[in-house]
Amino acid sequence: MPKSIVIAALLLAGGAAALHAQTDYYMRLGVTGASTLVHDQIVSELDARQSLAPTLVLGGSLRVMPRYGLGLEAALTSGGYSREENGISTRIGTLRTLAVLLNLDGPLFGPLRWRAGVGTMSYLPSDDAGIFLSGGTTRWLVGAGVDYRRRAFSRWDLLASARYDYHTFTTDALRARNFGGVQQISRIGVSVGFARGTR
Amino acid sequence: MRRLTIGLATILAAVTAAACSDISSPIRSNVYDWRLVAPKQTGGFDTLSFQWPASNQPVRYWVADTLDMPARVQRALDVWQGVFLYREFRGTVVADSSTADVIVRIGSPPASPGVPLGAFAPAFAAAFAPDCRGATDLDIRPGDEGHLFLPVRVYIEPKFDGTTAGESDCLDLTSIHEIGHTIGIWNHSPDPSDIMYGDPIVSAPSERDRETIERIYHVTPNVVPVAR
Could you tell me the pLDDT band of residue B42, with boundaries at 50, 70 and 90? Predict the structure, then answer.
């Protein structure tokens, strides 16, 4: 993980302790879908794809201006990935991903807020095999999304979110096998959960 | 702040648009003929291509527990599994020979095997006699060429007691070569730089070996495995 994100996390944690009243925390559960991981052609065309993956999102944000916040969000997914060729899908392993995003958030309209940021995306395969023969990989990530928030309990709010993020993908194993360029990957996630803090 | 919002959206759009081409896969045309040409009962020849179906994987290998052969075969499996990008083949060493798809023994093949493959005598230096040899016996019966009757039998034969350095290397190399036959390379490469050359002198699969086995697992086979 780049130092900048670690530093931001520490600042956020430190800031959270000192500025509790201006800090938001949230946790959401949801699902994330991603576009093709690798498109290849050996005899016919084939794709390596991730399945829809259950997602846990943890985050926090600190009010830096009256209506805007600076936050850190971590999204962990865990699902399968498969090879799809000639209409046949064969599961080939388990793949976890961890996206860490340093982001800004602000009001959109009504109970909706926008969120956008940059961060890293780490692929954590269960086995060092196939396209992950040399292990996982970490890539830069940009993302944006919308949060819907409404009061649910005295101190907790209901939070529903939609996210989009984008990164490029390759691995050492693919480069070693003379794959050129990178695969563009878009992900969309939806999740619901609870938030606590500033309103 | 509106400017900041617009700025962020612009950056996001620009980054997305900047990477406008996807990953490009390599051209894999460097293959040799892996198929087995077998005489047909009705005359003429049949060209046989085989791959382990996903439903039969992981393929179970039983290995005689001598000369460190289980570890050598496991390493050979690891080598071949490492060739595949999409985990098309998986094999494992098992303890019970009665459940095995492939049996690996030390010794020479029996007098009348099915279709003997891969008998070779690798030599690491011209001054020495071959240190070991191997053979893979595929049970394909005349008139029933579409079926491979299991188990596949592999024979690896050290010339002496299998403990000298040359013999140890030879057993490793021969294991990789014979496991290559068991996973679908039913022929020999014409090129000495390939592990599947009839009299191999290299110790690992070449790019051509890799591309050949990749190709095998992406064409439709005409032989399927059946239990004996």
Answer: confident
Tens of pLDDT, residues A99-131? 999 999 999 988 999 999 999 999 999 999 999
Q: Phi-psi category of B166—alpha, beta or left, where left has phi over 0 and alpha has psi -120 to 50? A: alpha
Q: Which of residues 208-227 of B touch A (CB under 8 A)?
A: 214-215, 218-219
DSSP letters for A89-137: EEEEEEEEEEEEEEEEEEEEETTEEEEEEEEEEEEEESSS-GGGTT--E
pTM: 0.83
Report the C-alpha gap between B116 and A7 in whole angstroms.
65
Domain that holds residue B26: 2-227
Distance from CA of B133 to the nearest CA of A (A): 30
Q: Report d(CA B214, CA B139) in Å as an integer.
A: 24
Domain-by-domain residue ranges, chain A? 3-197
Q: Please give the backbone phi and psi of residue B218, each rounded to the nearest 5 degrees, phi first.
A: -130, 15
* H/E run at residue B16: helix B2-18
> Per-residue pLDDT tens for B134-183?
899 988 887 888 899 999 999 998 887 767 777 888 999 999 999 999 99
Of the candidates A9, A30, A32, A25, the residue with the CA atom closest to the CA atom of residue A59: A25
pLDDT tens for each residue of A142-151: 999 999 999 8
CB contact under 8 A, A166 and B26: no
The beta-carbon neighbor of B85 closest among A177, A182, A183 is A177
**Smallest CA–CA distance from A40 into chain B, residue:** B25
Q: Which fold has domain A3-197?
A: Porin (2.40.160)
CA distance B189 to B187: 7
* CATH code of the domain covering residue B104: 3.40.390.10
| Distance (Å, whole) CA B12 – CA A163 | 13
pLDDT of res. B60: 98
Residues of A in contact with B11 (CB under 8 A): 142
